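Subject: for your reference before the review

Hello V.,

The reviewers asked for a structural picture of the protein, and I figured it would be easier to keep everything in one thread rather than splitting it across files. Below is the amino acid sequence we used in the manuscript, unchanged from the supplementary table.
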Amino acid sequence: MRSRVLRALRDDWRLTAAAFLGVGVLAALVTIVAVLITRPPSEPTGEAPPPAPSEADIGHALPEIGVEDFVVPDEGERLETWWWQRYRTPGEPWDPEQVERFWQDPREPALEYLRTRNNEEIERIFQNVP
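And here is what came back from the structure prediction:
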């Protein structure tokens, strides 16, 4: 039964379009019903909203505001003063004891690396020699 339905949907494009349209309409109806059920009740329409006060009534309650009442920051000062350190402060020069403690002659690791690479290359060259 299922294979006949799938075969019919595959063979007839009109039937396939109708099936998709039906599923779409069903989904829309379910969505509308869900929205209507979960929507809060509306306000009763019999009561009028409270009247808004006229401008003449509230004009005396507003304070007088002038341009001098606004505090505008000095942008130039903000650009000149940094709250973070723009670069690392240079350290003091090392004394000979500190240099001796951490110094490693660069020739030693370089020679060790070259020695290892040369040995590997020699082994690769001679690996097929009987």
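For the response letter, the relevant points are probably these. The two ends are 74 Å apart (CA to CA). The chain is about 55% helix and 0% strand.

Happy to draft the paragraph if you're swamped.

O.
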